[in-house]
Write a structure and sequence with these properties.
It is built from six helices and two strands; from the N terminus they run H-H-H-H-H-E-E-H. It is mostly helical.
Length: about 190
């Protein structure tokens, strides 16, 4: 596997492990607890990643299939545009510029841990599968539609990088919620 793709595969494996560590031992109330009104819970952070990631893996699959049909192969190293590199830097934690998520990616609140996490893990496995499928393709020339707009496309390599950065960003957000969880005190009902 190309070294760039191997690095992305490792990042998604680490994200999966980080998420497992994050939710280990949490009960439903802790998983859905919000530190303040309008501030996302751990559940909402992970649900958001599942929603965005679900769209991304479909778009990546279509781009890979199209690239294979068109013979867009390459061996790299791949150089990405200044705009893509800027967006990647802005996405990577720590969060410098908070932005609201588009309405279609705003998660429902109070979804069960047993419903959110299997879907989250499945999306992570789909990212890893598509990283393997991308081996041998030109990671710069293959373009992927973004979840934000069908008119905005990123290179396949930067799509993987940006997706991983976006996931790290919201896992960091979820860790901040975890750090604020009340210790030894029953949580108030949030339903």
């Amino acid at each position: 596997m190309h070294s760039e793709l191997e690095a992305y595969r490792q990042q998604f494996e680490q994200i999966t492990q980080d998420a497992r560590d994050l939710v280990k031992g949490l009960n439903e109330e802790e998983f859905t607890w919000r530190p303040a009104p309008g501030v996302w819970s751990i559940e909402e952070c992970l649900s958001h990643l599942t929603m965005v990631g679900g769209v991304q893996v479909v778009n990546i699959e279509e781009a890979i299939d199209n690239a294979r049909a068109r013979g867009l192969t390459g061996t790299g190293p791949f150089e990405y545009s200044a705009l893509e590199r800027l967006i990647l830097r802005e996405t990577e934690p720590p969060n410098r510029n908070a932005r609201s998520s588009p309405r279609r990616f705003q998660p429902l609140h109070n979804q069960p841990l047993t419903g959110v996490m299997p879907t989250f893990y499945h999306v992570q496995s789909m990212f890893r599968l598509h990283i393997e499928r991308a081996d041998g393709l030109d990671l710069k020339r293959v373009k992927v539609v973004t979840p934000i707009s069908r008119f905005l496309k990123f290179s396949l390599g930067m799509t993987f990088a940006q997706a991983a950065a976006h996931e790290r960003r919201h896992l960091a957000q979820a860790r901040r919620v975890l750090a604020k969880l009340p210790k030894g005190v029953p949580l108030p009902a949030t339903h």
